Amino acid sequence: MDAADMGRDLSNVLISEDELQTKIKELAGQIDADYAGKDLLIVGVLKGAVMIMADLARALHIPVQMDWMAVSSYGAGTKSSGVVRVLKDLDTDIANRHVLVVEDIIDSGLTLSWLLNNLQSRNPASAEICALLRKPDAVKVPIDVKYVGFDIPSEFVIGYGLDYAERYRNLPFIGTLAPHVYGGE
Ligand code: IMP
Ligand code: MG
Q1: Beta strands, E only, the chain
Q2: Ligand 2 center to 52 CA (angstroms)
Q3: Residue 80 has what pLDDT?
Q4: Where is the Phosphoribosyltransferase domain (predicted)?
Q5: Which of 79, 57, 37, 70 is nearest to 130 (CA)?
Q6: Position 87 in a domain
Q7: Which end of the chain is more exposed for a tag (fewer CB within 10 A), N or C?
């Protein structure tokens, strides 16, 4: 799917496919260097992280294992509550393992902060975060994100794994939607 397929539903391309791929290679270079000689497990947070996991994993030169978690923050409304339910847990025992959580976006940071605490209670050798995107609100939660792709404005974005109502995940770029998509005509 590309911009032309979006027609008038697309407002803006915020980060192009080329910019994404260049950044992912850069992140992979840092991760290669930081984890050289170590046994690394990368953990993708479903479903938003599928694209970055697939591209990042292939850009890495170090051998990694891959696992997945699915979580949902519940509570009323569309904002994350910080109360998180695990829909799919890891298949892997992470005790004494180096773990890197790969996430699509940090908005409030509540989901990842919960997730990191949860993983830390399993006594990994280390647990770090790699997020493709970060919004300004994330500074409100004291969470240490080791790798960040792009800091973006506080706008709702779609594409490259990110959805609106489960759509637009298969765009190769990050974009914003035209207002009519949210609100009818
Ligand atoms: P938070 O950091 O706990 O507020 O929630 C982060 C999660 O909310 C992400 O993993 C996404 O699933 C979702 N999310 C936050 N901002 C956006 C956005 O702009 N587009 C699509 N999903 C988003
Ligand atoms: Mg997500």
Answers
A1: 10-15, 40-46, 64-74, 83-88, 98-106, 126-134, 147-151, 174-177
A2: 12
A3: 67
A4: 18-164
A5: 57
A6: yes
A7: C
Measure CA 169 to chain center. 12
The CATH number for 93's domain is: 3.40.50.2020
State which of 52, 107, 108, 139 you would mutate to test the pocket of ligand 1, scoring each by most atoms of that ligand within 8 A of its C-beta: 107
CA of 46 to the centre of ligand 2 (A): 6
Number of domains in the chain: 1
- Does a structural domain hold residue 164? no
Residue 160 half-sphere exposure toward CB, CA atoms < 13 A: 28
- Average model confidence (pLDDT) across the chain: 93
Q: Which of 107, 137, 151, 163 is catalytic?
A: 107
So what's the pLDDT on residue 74?
65
The structure tokens 């690394």 sit at: 40
Q: 147 lies in which domain range? A: 18-153
- Rounded to a whole number of angstroms, the CA Rg of the chain reads 16
Pocket of ligand 1 (CB under 6 A): 48, 73, 80, 103-112, 156-158, 162
45 CA from centroid of ligand 2 (Å): 6
Question: Which of the residues in the chain have pLDDT under 50?
Answer: none
